[in-house]
Each structure stands twice: as structure tokens, then as C-alpha cells.
Design brief:
Blueprint (H helix, E strand, L loop, with lengths): L8 H5 L4 H10 L23 E4 L5 E4 L1 H7 L9 H14 L14 E6 L2 H12 L5 E5 L4 H7 L5 E5 L1 E2 L2 E2 L1 H8 L17 E4 L13 H13 L3 E5 L24 E6 L11 E6 H13 L6 H45 L3 E2 L8 E6 L6 H10 L5 E2 L13 E5 L5 H20 L1
Parallel strand pairs: 4-5, 4-8, 8-9, 9-10
Antiparallel strand pairs: 1-2, 3-11, 6-7, 10-11, 12-13, 13-15, 14-15
Helix pairs in contact: 3-10, 4-10, 5-6, 5-9, 10-12
Length: 427
Amino acid sequence: MNYTRFLNDVSLRRKSSPIRKLAAILAASPPTMISLGAGAPNPKLFPFKEAKITLRDGSSLDLDEKTMTTALQYGPSQGYPPFVEWLRKLQKELHNPPTWNLPPEEGGTDICVTSGSQDGICKALEMSLSPEDHILIDKPSYAGTLSVIQPLGCKFLDLETDKHGMKPESLKQKLSRWKPSDSKNPDSDIPKLLYVIPNGVNPTGSSLTLDRKKKIYELASEYDLIILEDDPYYFLQFTEERSPSFLSMDTDGRVLRFDSMSKILSSGTRIGFVTGPQPLVNRIQLHMEVSVLQANTFSQVVIYELLKRWDIPGFLKHTKSVADFYEKQKNHMDASAHRWLTGLAEWHPPVAGMFFWLKLKDIKDTKKLIEEKARAKEVLFVPGSAFLSDPNEPSSYIRASFSLASAEDIDKGFERLASLIKEELSS
């Protein structure tokens, strides 16, 4: 693949920082290496010496002085090396991309740790998009991604969705205004990127079927698109077997996959990672070098020490328990929706994630209802317009999250919503 096609002028001008190279060299050097080059602060002056972190099972992670020195110091922009290697092992076992063993220049798979998956997504979009470029994206879609794209001056090509996610026929229809060969023409305005959330979409809760994924990948291959696979809810699937990822079927080296530790370990650690073809992952890493330098090293070290203890079976056991919790929460919300909103709203129970997407019957726009009247009744939702590329477009939908509230509060919240809808319809 010609990866240069997916890089804008800013990204193409990025060069590796010689100072950042030193951090990677030092991390891989033997203890006998004498460093007079790096401008790192002296760790003997850090007030933190050791740390003990108590886990919920009663055990603890003990970070000795040597480990703490590493955790509190600058590190390689790609990520804390032992953590990066652990992630490689995880991605190989879970996804086993067909391009895994290809040479880097041919799209072989690489990994970079980012400051949450949002950081990686932001850098990928800023790496590729220029003003007036087209981008293919679900409608509705994640508000955080929309907020990244909107200031870039791009043109949204909104794709129709249903309870099974993005419709391949909508993608095909949007692409039909171009010929596949236009991707070889540098003057063509054919889209370069397809952004998709495959599981538990925020906000709709929808998840792509395997058949749809295959059709979408085929179209991406035909029109030479990069698939930005944003999958923070991969481990929050409520099915016995997880749906295969786009990365797992990526024979071309055209998938950039974004994973997150936020939903399964801790959102405050701000750790995510991007997996995909090395020529593109490297561009994200170059951006890391001049922005945040590296993802939080302390967070990486703590998470690595935990994952080293658990190993992959222990990690997957933990993620299963997390998914089981959210499935119970989903069932509570579904039961409450049937109790209070039957006849007032339409919805489908999600098979992954944290969200219900409710269509309020006979209400054309929920924005004022939710942002003003619902707040006055002391219940919070998000109006559907927040997840549209045009925030001024009316929406009859709202998003409800079941991640934090108790079963009692979910029920009480939907009771208040039902009262609010009835008041609105009778006014």
C-alpha cells in the first residue's frame, strides 16, 4: 500500500526528535551505559521513593525504588518497553493480524501507547485530514471524535446505521460518486478514512455483525480506505464469544485499531494503544514526541506490573467480570424502560457497551427537553443532537448510560423521564 496517500502535509513534515531517540536508546541500554546526553532530571531528587497499591482482591503491587525510578522518569515515546511487549502478546493472541510478520515498510503491525485511545484517534485524524477532505463516519457517532474533526474543516459523509451498526449499503452508496481508481489520483477528493466503532457504539449501543464487517472491509479494500477501528468496548461484549475485529481480517494493512484501558482498568490512568501498519503508527509516534512526549510512564508501569502478575488468562478473567457487571446493568435498564417507557419510546437492548439509545415518540427534538426540563426534574441524559455531525440538526433520540447508576436510580430516572415525556406531549 502507498501509505503516503493517507498523510497530510503536516504529518509528512514530521521528523523524529533526536532527544526522544535518546530516551529509547537509554531504555534499551545495559546498566553500564554512561549517559551524558539525556536531559532527564535526577531521580534522586524526586520525593517519591516507593509505592504500595492495594488491589480489590486484598493483594498489593509493591513498586520498589528501582521500579519507581523508571515509573517517574521520561520514557520512550512508543511506550514503556515491557508494557509494549505485553500488548504485542495480547494483540497477537486476540486478533492475530494477517500482516503481523510483514516487514515494517510493507505495513507490518506495530503498537504505540497513547494517552488514552482518544489521544491516538485525535492524532490519527490530524495525521491524515486536511481542509475540504471527506471523511466517512457513522450517523450518529461518538461526540469526542466529531469534536476532533469539526475544526479541521472536513466534509462529513454520514453513514446510515441501525441496531447492527453501520449499513454497508450506505457506505457503498456514499462511495458510488467516485471510481475505485480515483484513489490513485492525487487530485481526487475521494475519501481516505472510514471511522467506525464496531462494538457498543457510543451513543447507540449498536454492534456490527461479522457479515457487515466483511462487507465493509471489502469496500474499504476496493476504494483504498484506511479503517479507523475505535473499539473501547471490545471487552464489554455480552456474548459468549467476542466478535472478530477488523484488525483480525486485515490482509491489506489498512486498519488502525484503537484500544483503551479506561473501561476495564481505570479511566484516570489515561492509557490506550494503537495497533496497525507501522508506517502509520510511526507517524502517530512522531506526533507523540512533540506533544505529550510519551503516555504517562507511572500509569504504564503500574498497569504492566498488574498485567504481568495476571498474564493474559487473568486479564481476560477480569474483563469477563467487568462485562458481566455491565450486562446486569443493561438488564436493569431494559427492565426499567419496559416498565416506564413502553408506548413513549423505542429502543433496542445493546449487546455491548454502556448505553441505550432511546427514540422518544412524537418528539421531534429532544435538546431543550433534556438540557432544560429534565435537569429541572433532576435527571440527566444526553440529547441525540450531541452525536450528529451537524449539532443544529434536530434529533428525537436521547442517550442513557447504565454504567454508574444503581438499579434503583435507573428505575427512578426512567420514571422521571416518563413523566417528563407525558407533560411534553400534553402541553
